[in-house]
Amino acid sequence: MSRKKAAKGNKASAASSPASTGSPSTTAAAAAAATPGATRGTGGKGARSSPGIVQMNGVVHPSRPSISNSSEFYDIAFKVMVVGDSGVGKTCLLVRFKDGAFLAGSFISTVGIDFRNKVLNIDGVKVKLQIWDTAGQERFRSVTHAYFRDAHALLLLYDVTNKRSFDNIQAWLTEIHEYAHQDVVLMLLGNKADATHDRVVKREDGERLAKEFGVPFMETSARSGLNVELAFTAVAKELTHRSVKDPSEKFKLQEYVNKEMKSTGCCRS
Ligand SMILES: Nc1nc2c(ncn2[C@@H]2O[C@H](COP(=O)(O)OP(=O)(O)OP(=O)(O)O)[C@@H](O)[C@H]2O)c(=O)[nH]1
């Protein structure tokens, strides 16, 4: 079985059998119960067992470093959802970030929802991102909506080679405003920026749309790795900043992203 197939298979089991167990995508419900970042306001194992837990903005701060599912210590946990139309590259983006690989080969659509954890070091703070990969197909939309309200950040993707996926961004934003937390960190990503010959959505169009809705934006490529790490690091920085730093020192996500893109000189297509 290919890696892609294995990943998608996990999603299928998570969606169809909420009480079943499995790894790494045990189940949505089990994950929410087992991992601090997945349960806003109530925390997870660390929060329930330790009186030293501090909670800010619904985020769990264990009094001591905790251990994530992947056995890595962390100080703070957040839930990030990757959303957008079917085929825009959500699973590939997540796999690129988590494993540094590209899932080439035939496209197998996600069924339901799946998650993976990754711990990042953000300015000396160990930040666990629990990243939820959602199904883009319309028939799974109610499942996706159900998870919106627990997300601390949303990465909203379209595919630069698919105009329809770009046109649907407005509808996605409407759904996000309806179902997600009002202070959710949101970022618009134009994926498949490597596909220059098939491109139908210009970078400027993405920038314009993002500006219109006041959302940070950049283009990514799960295939080449362009900006993938930066996208997740940027939202992790924003969330960490909001949670542990002085709230009067506002972190400017778009400025950070622009600066990082310029400094690496790698990322404008
Ligand atoms: N050229 C190129 N192809 C990509 C990129 N990302 C994903 N793809 C391809 O796009 C197709 C869909 O990718 P997925 O990651 O499965 O898409 P998805 O958004 O998870 O789709 P659903 O699970 O149906 O919601 C696959 O054939 C990938 O190989 C990219 O950055 N560049």
UniProtKB/TrEMBL annotation:
It catalyses: GTP + H2O = GDP + phosphate + H(+). Residues 9-39 have a biased composition (Low complexity). NCBIfam families: small_GTP. Belongs to the small GTPase superfamily. Rab family. One of its GO terms (biological process) is protein transport. The keyword Flavoprotein does not apply. One of its GO terms (molecular function) is GTP binding. Its cofactor is Mg(2+). This is small monomeric GTPase. It is a lipid-anchor. Its main location: membrane. Keywords: GTP-binding, Hydrolase, Lipoprotein, Magnesium, Metal-binding, Nucleotide-binding, Prenylation, Protein transport, Transport. Residues 1-61 are annotated as: Disordered. It is found in: Membrane. CDD domains: Rab26. GO terms for cellular component: membrane. Its EC number is 3.6.5.2.
